[in-house]
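Exercise (ungraded).
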Amino acid sequence: MATETETPTTAEAPVQNAEILERLGRRYDAGFVTEIESDSLPPGLDEDVIRALSAKKDEPQWMTDWRLEAYRRWLQMPVPHWAKLQIAPIDFQAISYYSAPKGPKYNSLDEVPKELLDTYDKLGVPLHERARLAGVAVDAVFDSVSVGTTFRKELAEKGIIFCSMSEAIREHPELVRKYLGSVVPHGDNYFAALNSAVFSDGSFVFIPKGVRCPMELSTYFRINAGHTGQFERTLIVAEEGAYVSYLEGCTAPMRDENQLHAAVVELVALDDAEIKYSTVQNWYPGDAEGRGGIYNFVTKRALCQGRNSKVSWTQVETGSAITWKYPSCVLNGENSVGEFYSVAVTNNYQQADTGTKMIHNGKGSRSTIVSKGISAGHSNNTYRGLVRVAPQAEGVRNFTQCDSLLLGDRCGAHTVPYIEVRNPSATIEHEATTSKISDDQLFYAMQRGLDQESAVALIVNGFAREVLQQLPMEFAVEAQKLLGISLEGSVG
Amino acid sequence: MSLLNIENLSNTVADKPILKGLSLTLDAGEIHAIMGPNGAGKSTLAYTLGGRPGYEVTGGSVTFDGQDLLDMEPHERAAAGLFLGFQYPVEIPGVSNLQFLRESLNSQRKAKGLDPLSGGEFIRLAKEKAGLLGLDMEMLKRPVNVGFSGGEKKRNEMVQMGILDPRLAILDETDSGLDIDALRVVGEGINTIMRKPDRAVLLITHYQRLLDYVKPDFVHVLAGGRIVKSGGPDLALELEREGYAEVVGAGVAA
């Protein structure tokens, strides 16, 4: 028997907190611009631009052809409008699709100019030899190109490949051809098709059979140039029994224009492999009046192809004017496991429409979804999720928990869970709550000595704890601070 | 100089006058009890001294250790040494007691220009104070007041008081919800932590029973928004025996 339910529930903030809502704007520490000469393609998009981009990256013909196919698909596709988002029309001809610091390619980090190293230093991601993050390998992507990757030698000794996507296309074409587009095909959706046509750089990770990656891998994405978009492509493959924990961070300068970031991330986990993918997204969110900010339209999907394979997405989304992303798991393998842990914070005029899809095709596959949405100011925060159980998938289990926290009475929290079950043996649980920071909690914490901002940060971090616990230690601390900063000025 | 000096304090809550010219003076080393019928303004007094938003002062003055208390934010009052024991301690899900108290204490220390306590130093302090109140350290690892019984919440308030080490504790019906054993433990805790020459306590209570364990130096009756009668410990016994109406007059107690 097939059952299909669709239960959109909407809770517009019912809050009457008397003193809330002095919107003082927020601090954005990553909002600076690096003065560096760049080599950019002029704005505009057509087949010649794609060929030029592909040529700049010395790509083989198959890659150029793949891009062009994607571009032709994209031209046929309508702009999607199904999400609960107010998006100003995007002029795709006004965007420059390639921007890179001028000069020859860097063969090692020693050749990277000081301005760039300083940029990452300032962002708390030291790349130079002395100050490298202990136990974390970093690939640093600046606008359209990777400027360097740390700990490569150490990783190569174990057979692990961690490099920029451009390099992978040149050095490991057989792996890239096998897996690129295998999870997110180039015609998957509007923004994925655009990405497939114009993607510039990103990270490639390959963990061979039986290898446990000895350190955290991370990519730090930085948009610097104006009037550009960032279209990165990340591909992670974990062979049988392999394990890797990967983290990405993102920031951009403060600008009045909206900049487009349309990424695609593909993960492949074979038998008994595990991938842990964490995101701390802090793109520029726009100012207190909603001017500027990044459009963060991202397609992330994992293929849990093997038996007992496991993929765990953890995301802390604090930035971007608009976030539109649903890191998902296609659970093909028997007893495969998908997890999604999310904290999404929206303040001022930010909009987030985020969630996950858990597609259960494999017998005994299990998934867990924990989503914590925090809305403040005039923002809107939507959880949108799909749990689908295929007819052949016996004994599937899913647990979903969606909690919303409201600060003030002008923001919105929305929960849109879709559940499609075509196998009666499935156990699906869904829990949802909506609450607000109470005056009682604020006063209690302040009476113990915390100022208002610290009290809000403490309460919000408590609310998000289940998710923050999933992050690697070094990043959990960063994420906690970020949550506090994102909500500065939201309670007055 | 008195530690707390309240002069002619009036306020409103949601535009309704509650305190109507209340005056009270506490010196260091003293324990004062405030008793009074329901609705007299006892909790309002506690919240107003704590600086709770919505408790609007319309007249009078309050000085704390010579400073204008009414001019300070709630967290500044806390750092100055004012502790409010809540009648209904508040739950903060996902935040452990230890984390909450360490952040609170270090925030107060920062305001006083002191270095923060390290994790180790803080745990030693917390262990000592929890032991004093018979509260298991495991309780302090749990989220603030979440799933605590009424008695555990009140004991937790006292552990917080012990750790934050205030000069003035205003304890709002700390005895409510306590069984007789817990009452003794809490009473002894108050004595150990606060019965010192440089400190003072303002005990707000309905009943005499807590005063069996914490002997007040002065007892005041609060009715109709002001102190209508003051006396020694005997006044509490008299109130218990004869009721508010009899002692302060039916018109005032209503």
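Further reading is listed at the end of the chapter. For now, observe: The first strand of chain B starts at residue 4 and ends at 13. Chain B has a mean pLDDT of 92.
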